[in-house]
Design goal:
The protein contains 16 helices and eleven strands. The protein is an alpha+beta fold and 373 residues long. The structure holds cobalamin and iron/sulfur cluster (2 copies).
Length: 373
């Protein structure tokens, strides 16, 4: 480790970041072709921002015109959980979303770190922090900075630390010596993540069709969950961890040190489906999920997911709520998914609701009612 890296690590450590790598601010040339090929196949689905301008996403100058170096940082978010028991009542939440919203937690610290580094490093004057939402290929940058390698599940994997890590960056306008990349393909012959994916979202190793991924279907997708994927969601109401849970590199995960990311600071590992389905309006929803990543899909998205999971985990206690939602909810997306859920839980209730809904104003709801009848 040279003296500059030692200084950066020491300052980053003061802000709680203990995994740090440095790479040049030059465009991520190696990542551009895979990104283009991915977009050409339409794998980004409704996330149109990903395909709008691939060269821009591969270029840190999009974020800071004068960038000369990119500092990649990783933050552990792993917490242990009791084995998940559906108990015909609960939906599962992906681990990254158990605590407070990581964007709100990471960004202020990254910004403060950027200022501290710009003050401390000779020649530096400008900094810019980024985390997730910025148009930048964070995993490719982390690979170039030597933090780890791409797993076949497309996650950034660290040889002795696994993949339960958020990524963030600090961009600086000074040229710094890069840290060494990890070059070996550490997955070897393992294919555990590829075969475990409940919705068969991997087209091939290292390539994910996001349109099939539960994370996309439950968080990013605005409209109906396609029928062919509903059962595949299983108990997952928000995000999915299967392709990381099975990864042998994650066997030695250590408890996350940042208190804000602890399950007690947010919703934790599971949600009571009855409680979610009873959230009456957007205000009740916002009050329940404020400061957590679950705000993202909104009430309409989360209740849509809850209805699908209710059927998947056989939550028969949810039938009265689902019947009410199918008849009365102002949101067609929720009415339609509630009908689908009822059809798997209670034939009579489903038929009653569908009789009413077959003259619904909304074509999607009429279609779901038709499928029930
Ligand atoms: C869009 C997005 C999604 C989409 C698409 C995911 C995907 N695989 O592309 C969806 C909604 C499905 C998603 C899901 C998840 N996401 Co997400 N997501 C993003 C986001 C915003 C952009 C990713 C992107 O550009 N995708 C397009 C593809 C083409 O780019 P890429 O994944 O970087 O792919 C590169 C490699 O495939 C590589 N490549 C291609 N071929 C080959 C071949 C070889 C041999 C090699 C080595 C490399 C390689 O080149 C590509 C271009 O760089 C990033 C944040 C960011 N700004 O980067 C977070 C991010 C990737 N997500 C993150 C997380 C935590 C998740 C979830 C775990 C959340 C969850 N539990 O539900 C899941 C994981 C699913 C999975 N297996 O990837 C973290 C990942 C951290 C990590 N350790 O990897 C990120 C970095 C956010 C953050 N700041 O922490 N996500
Ligand atoms: S997050 Fe779940 S659905 Fe998405 S690729 Fe991984 S295992 Fe498949
Ligand atoms: S499960 Fe196996 S193939 Fe998948 S990322 Fe982990 S080591 Fe690689």
């Amino acid at each position: 480790m040279n003296a500059t890296h030692a200084t950066i690590r020491q300052i980053a450590g003061l802000y709680g970041f203990d995994v740090v790598g440095v790479s040049s601010g030059a465009p991520l040339e190696d990542a551009l072709e895979p990104l283009r090929a991915w977009c050409d196949q339409g794998y980004e689905g409704e996330m149109g921002y990903l395909s709008r301008d691939p060269p821009q996403r591969a270029d840190a100058r999009t974020l800071l015109k004068q960038v000369r170096s990119v500092i990649s940082l990783a933050v552990n978010y792993w917490h242990p959980a009791p084995p998940f028991e559906a108990e015909a009542r609960y939906g599962r939440v992906a681990r990254y979303a158990w605590g407070r919203d990581y964007h709100d937690v990471l960004l202020p610290r990254l910004e403060a770190l950027g200022k501290a580094l710009a003050d401390a490093l000779p020649g530096a004057s400008r900094s810019r922090a980024a985390c997730d939402h910025s148009p930048f290929l964070e995993r490719a940058a982390a690979v170039r900075a030597g933090l780890g390698f791409f797993g076949k599940n497309t996650c950034l994997l660290m040889p002795r630390k696994g993949s339960w890590w958020f990524l963030g960056e600090v961009l600086l306008d000074v040229e710094l010596p890069p840290t060494e990349p990890v070059r070996t393909d550490h997955c070897g012959t393992c294919t555990d993540c590829l075969t475990a994916c409940p919705t068969e979202a991997f087209v091939e190793p290292f390539v994910l069709d996001a349109r099939r991924c539960i994370s996309y279907l439950t968080i990013e997708l605005k409209g109906p969950i396609p029928h062919e994927h509903r059962a595949g969601l299983g108990p997952w109401i928000f995000g999915c961890d299967v392709c990381q849970d099975v990864c042998p590199f994650n066997r030695f995960a250590q408890q996350a040190p940042w208190p804000e990311l602890a399950p007690e600071q947010g919703v934790g590992p599971r949600l009571d489906l009855l409680e979610v389905l009873a959230l009456k309006d957007d205000a009740a929803f916002a009050a329940r999920f404020q400061d957590t990543p679950l705000l993202r899909p909104g009430r309409r998205g989360l209740l849509r997911n809850a209805a699908v999971v209710a059927r998947n985990v056989e939550a028969t206690a949810a039938v009265p709520l689902l019947e009410r939602l199918a008849r009365e909810d102002p949101e067609p997306l929720i009415r339609g998914h509630a009908l689908w859920a009822l059809a798997g839980l209670d034939d009579d209730a489903a038929r009653r609701a569908a009789e009413v809904s077959r003259t619904d104003d909304d074509p999607f709801v009429r279609e779901e009612a038709g499928a029930v009848l």
